[in-house]
Write a structure and sequence with these properties.
The complex is a heterodimer of chains A (87) and B (573). With 87 residues, chain A is of the alpha+beta class. Chain A has helices at 15-25, 57-65, and strands at 3-10, 28-34, 41-50, 70-75, 78-80. Chain A has a single domain (3-80), classed as Alpha-Beta Plaits (2-Layer Sandwich), CATH 3.30.70.260. In chain A, strands 2-3-1-4-5 form a five-stranded antiparallel beta sheet, covered by helices on one side. In chain A, a hairpin with a 6-residue loop joins strand 2 and strand 3. Chain B has three domains: 20-187, Thiamin diphosphate (ThDP)-binding fold, Pyr/PP domains (Rossmann fold); 209-367, TPP-binding domain (Rossmann fold, 3-Layer(aba) Sandwich), CATH 3.40.50.1220; 381-550, Rossmann fold (3-Layer(aba) Sandwich). In chain B, 34% of the residues lie in helices and 16% in strands. Chain B contains 21 helices and 18 strands. In chain B, the strands form three sheets. A six-stranded parallel beta sheet of chain B has the order 2-1-3-4-6-5, with helices on both faces. A six-stranded parallel beta sheet of chain B has the order 9-8-7-10-11-12, with helices on both faces. In chain B, strand 15 (448-454), helix 18 (464-470) and strand 16 (476-481) form a beta-alpha-beta unit. Chain B starts with 26 loop residues before the first helix and ends in a 23-residue tail after the last strand. The chains are: A alpha+beta (87), B alpha/beta (573). The A-B interface holds A 12-14, 17-18, 21-22, 25, 56, 58-59, 62-63, 65-68, 80-81, 83, 85-87 and B 139-140, 143-144, 147-151, 153, 168, 170-173, 201-202, 204-205, 322-324, 327-328. The complex binds thiamine diphosphate (TPP). Thiamine diphosphate is lined by residues 401-405, 428-431, 454-457, 480, 482, 484-488 of chain B. Thiamine diphosphate binds next to helix 16 and helix 19 of chain B.
Chain lengths: 87, 573
């Protein structure tokens, strides 16, 4: 099954690489990327395929959400609540 | 014989010639000042080309720099500092090979959620991307193993960036943060700078009330509830609340490798460590339980064994600061995301009726207690470690390397608190023990810090004996020498039909002589009867000391859950 994930993030140096890195490392194949050019906060939509069984898009969303530059994540299965980490 | 220290040798961090006072203030001075303002006391590092401007700003600062002999050791020592203090340990290295040498230590901190700030020198921005001398993309290399990272490009933002990076490393689920500093930023002349101020820390966020209430209800309805405690409890500063919860409810507990010490290991309710080398009482309790209350643990495969047969009858209440851990590997019936201390306080209202379960788990604990009546006259490492930790008492801190000896420490030592057991859990980094022992002892000088290592592991960072000697770090080292890569040998024996491949270390150096060559007192122990005197000598020594303890090469760690099997299928001696 294919998924789509939309990520709003601060486009700091390395932010795009970091997000795509998490997606691939956590067991998903990237099949499409759309990121309208912008500075500051941008939105990126990534089409994904899980590699093998047992990969949850919901958990991936939360793993992306904990990246420091990320502000909001929406998956095809709903929105991941994101709270910027504070002690 | 121990080589005496001569008058010419440095006895402490060597002050470099003063003289920068007349030179203009640079980005490096701002960076060093920012470290001071952020409360950093000790920096572990090693200089080189791209980071020379920062080293130039160190003399005269309040920072104590510990010159290690390999950058990996700087990162591992900083990791131990982070584990002991809860504050980010700081390491630094030059660009290129210095930076890549830090990577294992950074990954180690990442896997165990340890606060760390790693500072690397980088070639000037104009050279970046041109394959300059000692240019590597450490920002990219470390991306999968840091909580966050920055290339510090703007000299006017040095203090602000450092403050933010320390905050990120230490807050929420802690982790390592990398700051890559191009040389032109480090040398930029700075007219004026703001002090480094940490962002305001928000009050602890209470866990959601509805899920706490659901947690209480499910606990009250359980007949066989069990606490499954991981390293997240200590990282979240929730040890007291966990202990109070355990006392109020009477629920028995098992812990992961990282969770050991959250309940004192001698506490009746502590059934032991679960998992691959866990105790039988602990693993059986998990398999029998009808409710797991998972606190700051992540269902790691070393703890769960075969996941689909782990705790087959149990519902799950999962408490974690990091929402990405809840439902990751095992669905939670109730997930409680938020501050662990607050969540534990909330759950303490539960009053399950579990007398029969408690007495059953206690009986099992007695039935399956570890045994120390090993045959033969050689030193029995589990007994040695048990007696050492008991003799050292509540001040005991074990810093382990990786292998059989690491598992024996976890199984047999007495730990009064989580900081009493520093171990490379997630990454399993051989070479951790000696540099991390240095970091731990510097972080807590009053503690009785003992590095427990093996003859394989110790050689991975043996050069750090020079650091111990240089700063006269009174670290105690117990080196179990079985002349083999014991844990690998054990697996080859059990799971590879005794096809022993590349595990024989017959040609080890004489470790006592080697330590003495580094200027460290050392002695060799070969007989079980000498255990007590060896422990006395170790504990009464005021300076650094190494006990080279020869043990049987064929000794194995028991019990053992074979890889890929259920925790119910434990192999025993
Ligand atoms: C850096 C690194 N390389 C390899 C391993 C794999 N490994 C795990 S335990 C072990 C053997 C450790 O031998 P030793 O330090 O002598 O301890 P023992 O098991 O004999 O107690 C090895 C090679 C590792 N964990 N870390």
């Amino acid at each position: 099954m294919d998924f789509r994930i939309t990520i709003d993030f601060e486009n700091d140096e390395g932010a795009v690489r970091r997000i795509l890195g998490v997606i691939e490392q956590r067991g998903f194949e990237i099949v499409s990327i759309a990121m309208p050019g912008a500075e500051g906060t941008v939105s990126m939509t990534v089409g994904l395929k899980p590699r093998g069984e047992g990969r949850s898009i919901e958990i991936l969303g939360r793993q992306i959400a904990r990246l420091h530059s990320v502000q909001n994540v929406q998956t095809t299965q709903g929105q991941t609540e994101f709270e910027r980490e504070c002690a | 014989m121990t080589r005496p220290m001569t008058a010419q040798e440095p006895s402490d961090a060597t002050p470099i010639a003063q003289g920068h006072n007349t030179r203009p203030k640079t980005g490096s001075h701002v960076l060093v000042e920012a470290l001071e303002q952020l409360g950093v006391e000790v920096v572990f590092g090693y200089p080189g080309g791209a980071i020379m401007p920062i080293y130039d700003a160190l003399p005269g600062s309040k920072l104590k720099h510990i010159l290690v002999r390999h950058e990996q050791a700087a990162a591992l020592a900083a990791d131990a500092w982070g584990r002991m203090t809860g504050k980010a340990g700081v390491c630094m290295a030059t660009s290129g090979p210095g930076a890549t040498n830090l990577v294992t230590g950074i990954a180690n901190a990442f896997m165990d959620s340890i606060p760390m700030v790693a500072i690397t020198g980088q070639v000037p921005q104009a050279i970046m991307g041109t394959d300059g001398f000692q240019e590597v993309d450490v920002f990219g290399i470390t991306m999968p193993v840091v909580k966050h990272s920055v290339i510090l490009r703007d000299p006017s933002k040095i203090a602000e960036t450092l403050a933010e990076c320390f905050h990120i490393a230490e807050s929420g689920r802690p982790g390592p943060v990398l700051i890559d500093v191009p040389k032109d930023v480090a040398t930029a002349v700075i007219e004026s700078s703001q002090p480094a101020v940490r962002p305001t820390v928000r009050a602890r966020v209470a866990a959601d009330e509805a899920s706490v209430k659901a947690g209480i209800d499910i606990i009250n309805s359980a007949k066989k509830p069990l606490l499954y405690v991981g390293g997240g409890v200590a990282r979240a500063g929730a040890v007291e609340e966990l202990r109070a919860f355990a006392k109020e409810t009477g629920i028995p507990e098992v812990s992961t490798l990282q969770g050991l010490g959250c309940l004192p290991t001698w506490d009746d309710q502590h059934l032991g460590m679960l998992g691959m080398h866990g105790g039988k009482a602990a693993n059986m309790a998990v398999q029998e339980s009808d409710l797991l209350i998972v606190c700051g643990a992540r269902f790691d495969d070393r703890a769960t064994g075969r996941l689909d047969s782990f705790a087959p009858n149990a519902r799950v209440v999962h408490l974690d600061r990091d929402p990405a851990e809840i439902n990751k590997l095992r669905n939670a019936d109730v997930g409680i995301q938020g501050d662990l201390a607050k969540a534990m306080q909330g759950l303490s209202a539960a009053r399950p009726e579990i007398d029969a379960w408690c007495s059953h788990t206690q009986d099992e604990k007695v039935t399956h207690a570890m045994r120390y009546d090993a045959p033969g006259k050689g030193v029995f490492a589990p007994l040695f470690l048990k007696e050492l930790s008991e003799a050292a008492g509540d001040d005991f801190v074990a810093v382990c390397d990786v292998g059989q000896h690491q598992m024996w420490v976890a199984q047999h030592c007495r730990f009064s608190r989580p900081q009493a057991h520093l171990t490379s859990g997630g990454l399993g980094t051989m070479g951790y023990g000696v540099p991390a022992g240095v970091g731990a002892k510097l972080a807590e000088p009053e503690a009785t810090v003992v590095t427990v290592t093996g003859d394989g592991s110790v050689m991975m960072n043996i050069h750090e004996l020079a650091t111990i000697r240089r700063y006269r770090v009174p670290l105690k080292i117990v080196l179990f020498d079985n002349s083999t890569l014991g844990l690998v040998r054990q697996w080859q024996e059990l799971f590879f039909e005794e096809n022993f491949s590349e595990v024989d270390l017959f040609d080890n150096p004489d470790f006592a002589e080697l330590a003495e060559a580094f200027g460290i007192e050392a002695f060799t122990v070969t007989k079980r009867d000498d255990t007590d005197s060896a422990i006395d000598r170790l504990l009464s020594c005021n300076g650094p000391i190494l006990a080279h303890v020869r043990i049987d090469p064929m000794e194995n760690v028991w019990p053992l859950v074979p890889p890929g099997r259920s925790n119910a299928e434990m192999m025993e001696a």
